[in-house]
Design brief:
Length: 109
């Protein structure tokens, strides 16, 4: 172990530190209207699950009301799934358009 640090290594370290300080800060994860990608993904999952839950609930309620237990439950579960997928795809389309508009303005950096 040396008692004095090597001056050549110190100069090299100072040059590397100056180079790093001169660089732009690291990029953040891409956001959409202030939301992270994880939050956008959860939004889409919630839209899909909500559509399915509403369809299943309506189908079950109609089955209890009319006494045809599996019929409306199956039909409205599938309709709820389709509505959830449609809503989720609409949100994805909207977010894509927002990102494209931001990129065109130069705000994506």
């Amino acid at each position: 172990m040396a008692s004095e640090p090597d001056p050549e290594r110190l100069r090299a370290l100072e040059a590397r530190l100056a180079k790093v300080k001169g660089q732009a800060p690291p990029e953040k994860t891409e956001t959409v209207k202030g939301f992270s990608q994880g939050e956008v993904a959860w939004r889409m999952v919630i839209e899909l699950v909500t559509g399915m839950a509403l369809g299943t609930g309506i189908g079950y309620g109609l089955d209890v009301l009319f006494g045809t237990l599996p019929l409306f439950l199956i039909i409205f579960s599938l309709l709820g799934f389709a509505a959830g997928v449609k809503t989720m795809l609409g949100s994805a389309r909207q977010l894509t358009q927002t990102n494209a508009a931001r990129a065109a303005k130069g705000e994506g950096d």
